[in-house]
Prior knowledge:
Helices cover 60% and strands 0% of the residues. It contains 25 helices and no strands. The longest helix has 27 residues, at 345-371. The two termini are 18 Å apart.
Amino acid sequence: EESNLDLRGCMNNTRYSDNFQGSYSDALFRNSSDDQAIISNAENTTTCVNTNATQNISEANLSAEPSEKEWNNMIAKTVKYVATADHSELLWRVKLEDRNKMITENYKTYFREFSITLFKKTNMKTLDKLKHMQCEYENILELLIGSETWNLPQRHGMLANILSDNKTNLLNCESLIDTKETQIPLDLIIWNMNIILQNFFNEEKTPISQTESSFLNLTYSAHDLEHMFADAIKLIEKCDTEITEVYKICCAFVDYEKKLFGDMSKHEIVASLKIPTIAETFSKLKRCMELNKVYEISVFIELHTKDPIRFLKQHYLVSTVFLLNALLIYLNEIDYRELYVHSDKKNYMHKRSEMSKKAFYIGQLFERLQRNIEGNDLKADFYGVLNCFRYHFKANTRQGNRNTLLLVQIPTLIAMVVDKSFCFTEKHFKELASFILYSIKNKDCGCSEFYNDKFEYFLEKNLSSFGSIYKHVKSFVKDYKGVARRNSKIIKMSWAFQNILKNLSVECEKQLNKNIQLKRLYILQLYWISTFQYKCLAFYANHDNFCMMVSNIHRRIELYYD
C-alpha cells in the first residue's frame, strides 16, 4: 500500500555496514546507570508535529536523494528512551526510500517510536501515541524514584493518585457485579505495591511487621512454638485470614525462633521441633499441583529439593514451613473448572473475581517465601510487582488486553525472575515497577507495540535463561500424568508447539536472532498452557474458550515477529 512504509524487505537483500550498526547500538542505546539519568531528556511529547495525525510517513513529498551521512548522523545523535528494547539488528529492513523520509525535520523526532514498532508499516497517529505513552511512563518513573525517602502513607497517596483514573475500570463490569467489588482489586494492588516499594527502598520495617501477634504471650519453649505453628495453620484453614495477618504470623515466628534458639544451626533447630519438614511439605505440594500447576512453585521445589534449608535465612525455618503449608491450603481451594459450572454471567463474574483474588494471595505467599531465602530480596521485589500485574490482567475485562501478548509475556518474565540465572538490577526494578503502574493506570492497552517493546527490554536482559526455563518445562511435562486427554484438538496444539520449539531452536543455532529467541520464549508458554490446560489457567487468564484463546495468542506472536 503506497501510503504506508513498506519495511518487510531489505534494500538489495543486504545489511548495512558493521560500522553503521555499531553507531546505532553505541549512540542510540547509551544509558547512564544513576537514577538522575534514568529520566531521558526527550523533547516535550505534548507538542505534536505540524502534520495530520493520521498521515502515514510515506506520504511525505520528498524529492531529495537519500543521504547515508544524514541517516547515520541522525541515529548517532538520537538518545535512547528509558527502558526501550534494542532493535538495532532490525535496521537492515529499513528500505532506502524510508530512510530518506525519516531524516526529514517532520519525522526524525519519531525515530525512537519507529524503532518501537520494529520498523514496520506505521502511521503518524501511532507514532504520536507512542511518544505520549513514553512520556507518561517516564513521568511515573520520575515520581517513583523521587519517593525513595517517603514513608508508607506518603507513598500510598502517590500510588493512589497515579491509579485514581482506574477506580472503576479494573473490573469493568459494574452491571454484573456490585460496584463495591470493582474497587477491591485496586486497593489490594496499591497496598501490596506500597509494601514492596518499602522493602525495596530499605526503609524501616512496616508497621504490620511490628504489630505483636497474640501468640507472643506464650513462654519460650519448643513445645509452645509447636503449638503456635498448629494454631497458625488452623487460622489459615478457616479461609478468612487476611494476608496482613499471615505476614504478622511470619514475623512472630522469626522473632520467636531467634529468641528461643539463638545461634543454634538450622539443622539442629529442625531436629528440635516436631513440625512438618520442608521435604514433607514439598511432597504434598507436588501432589496438590496435580490440580493446579503453578510454574514458580514447581521451580522453587525443584531448586531446593536436595537441600531445602541450605539457602534459608537464619531463624526463618518455622516461617518457611508455615508459608509452604499456607500455599498448600490455598492451592487446594482453587479449581478453575468451577468458573464454568454456572451459566449465568453474574455468577461467572463473581467466581472470576474470587479466582483472581485467590491466585493473587498465593502469589503474595510465594513472594514472602522468596524473602526467606538468603540473597533473594530483590528477586522477591520483582516477583511481587509482577504478581500485582498478573492480578490486574486477570481481574479486568477490557477489550484492549485482547490485542496484546500479555497472557504469555507476564508469565515469561516471571519465569526469568524465579530462575536461578536471575540477573536483574535495582535500576531494572524501578523501571519495571513504573511500567506496571503505567499499565494498570491506563484504561486500555492500545498501541500494543509499546507494551511489547517494554517486555522485550526486560526479557532481552536475560535471554540466555531460555535453556534453563525449557529444561524446567520439559521436566514438569514429563512428570505430568494427564497427557492422555480427550480433546484431540488440544493434544494436536501441544504437539504442534513442541515441534515449533524444535524448529526455532534449529534457527537459533544457525543465527543468533533476538526476535527468534523471544518468539521461542512465548511459544514455550503456549506449550505449557496447551499441556496443562485448566490446571494452570488460574495463574494465566480467565477464558472459557481455551482453544480460541491459545490460537489467537499464537497468531499475534506470528504476526508481530514475521
